[in-house]
Design a protein that fits this description.
homodimer, alpha/beta, 2 domains, six-stranded antiparallel β-sheet, 14 strands, about 35% helix
Amino acid sequence: MTEKKILMIVCDGLSDRPVKQFDNKTPLQAARKPAMDAIARHGMSGTMDVIAPGVIPGSDTAHLALFGYDPFKVYTGRGPIEAAGAGIPLDPGDVAFRCNFATVDGSMNVIDRRAGRIREGTAQLSKALSGMKIGDVTVQFKEGSEHRAALVLKGPGLDWHVSDVDPHKEGNTLQARALVPGAEKTARVLNEFVSKSNEILRSHEVNVDRAKMGLPPANIVLPRGAGGIRDLETLTARYGLKCAAVAGVTLVKGICRMVGMDVPNVKGATGGLDTDYRAKGEAALGLLSSYDFVFVNVKAGDIAGHDGDFKGKVQVIENIDTMLGLVLKEIHEGVVIALTADHSTPVSVKDHSADPVPLAISGGGVRVDGVREFDEISASLGALGRIRGMELMPILLGTADRAKKFGA
Amino acid sequence: MTEKKILMIVCDGLSDRPVKQFDNKTPLQAARKPAMDAIARHGMSGTMDVIAPGVIPGSDTAHLALFGYDPFKVYTGRGPIEAAGAGIPLDPGDVAFRCNFATVDGSMNVIDRRAGRIREGTAQLSKALSGMKIGDVTVQFKEGSEHRAALVLKGPGLDWHVSDVDPHKEGNTLQARALVPGAEKTARVLNEFVSKSNEILRSHEVNVDRAKMGLPPANIVLPRGAGGIRDLETLTARYGLKCAAVAGVTLVKGICRMVGMDVPNVKGATGGLDTDYRAKGEAALGLLSSYDFVFVNVKAGDIAGHDGDFKGKVQVIENIDTMLGLVLKEIHEGVVIALTADHSTPVSVKDHSADPVPLAISGGGVRVDGVREFDEISASLGALGRIRGMELMPILLGTADRAKKFGA
């Protein structure tokens, strides 16, 4: 059997929930999208929990799962998730922490682990810390919600097996230690960062203002939940696939590179609402001639979702559909096409949600079910049933006659 | 609630993909099969990934999963299954191999890995090897179909982590080696067996006769697929089921024996296209009177799939259906019937594929959905949804009111 090529098209945050004032339709149900519907009509549809039911996927964990990696295994500790959440891209070798802004007294006793649940000024405090150099290690630091923040250490010879600095209760043991031989450097750098955070923050104007208002100063950072990202076996090593990606967003590009894809720069593919859809489609077609697996991420739907803009999202869908129509015209049916989203970003939520995403697969050896439209409900009635994101790659490999036999 | 009996009918390789020149139908969709459709119509249908999505099942791993065992935990190479199929009972600690009779020249170069696909005389050759002693290790050896055979080493201190002797292509590296510390003895004994097999076989009268006929001599045995048996808890121990199987193929028979089924010989059940369907059906009915769980494997669909013969596969389906019709006539609805396949063997692929298989369950306490036909697409729209092979036995036990309560 001839092995087929695979084209995976992920429309970031595309899927949604029904919206009352728009006839209880989702943006996908409201949009005119003949190309998407054609993929559903000539193929097999289903619903996909990208991570697991009830888990809200981040774009990073979602893409890891879509490429067949178990995000629960790839991610180590809470730090990397906090970092990803804060938008600090992680490379293998980096060590990431979840942090609190906290209050210590002059003898470094922790008075308040959350600095009075500080809400204002954490962006300025973070800016004062980020970019710091500790020997050959660079610090990246970014605030999260309230007193929370993310810390990433980037440099040679780091190891995430270090204990928390955060004592988890009021007290004064603010000392990280190596949990395995080889992690001593990381513990030392981390302790120096904590001590420097106190030096820098205690006199920061945000804290001067807080003192005036009688609020506890956010005069130290307490890191915990150290984690790194494991060096991933590439898709080429795993499945023998030559892979390339068309993506605009840094985070997604980063993950594509981590799993061994070539990620050429596509002029006009910005990852924004102004992205050049046509350029993306043409780039994908070009790559299909020399790669086995081509991945395309279109970010715009997610942005419209975050903006809570129903009509904007419908427009994005119709724009993507036009691009898809051009791509479909140039592709013979030997190519296996998967059309899906990495997560839902409902306009009513203005953020990612745990709702599963629709999926349609056409081409190759696919069985054709009776589904005629590509949307959240139509897809859920298809022959694929309800699958997990991690199952998508194996299913595509099977449909493309690239799967391996287990047993005899 | 009275416990019901269970009849599991596995049509080997039955499911398929749509074929363009036959109106985009699968053989199941094209065949006239009133009995299969009746099971679907009076029961509940679904789609089943026998191992996991995107994994192409072997017949061995598939049947383990269908009987409720995790093939990833149980499976240790092909050897033990070949031995079970050949009727050599394995004890924990034994090491089993799948072997070929092959042809080597005077310098031990492999000339033909299958000794001209020898069919005649392998029983005599096997007898000449079986019972051999190598130190404290006893050799058991038994022919299989054509050039195939099973080797079991029995003795203290053996370990199945050894490499294949079979070079898998014509060549002369006929040397097993230990893959882990502790397997050196096994590698040594195995190499001595191979060398002795050459000494004994090269002058054997079967080979003298073959030489006269100008056929390549079966003058060496090439073992591969070393494995031991993890002590499998039988279905009887696990579920309290008295079990029997009707199967023609050695491999499947072997697995049935491994999980504790009685496997009576059924006259005419050959495992080939010429199998006596009626005899199989009657045997199953007979066994149902004294066993709780009766398993039937019909191999013919897989063969037609491997041959790429659409019309032949349709004919096989209609033949199986006639047999099923006779069985259904004699069975009261208290019996839980499961109709499925162990994997797909699409005529367009001519080999196993990763496509899931259809499943229909009727009888007992089953809920009845609206599915009216037994085929890949109709089944996928049924109330069972998409399940894994390992979930089938628990579901059948539940439907037959034989499941255990977990909790209070």
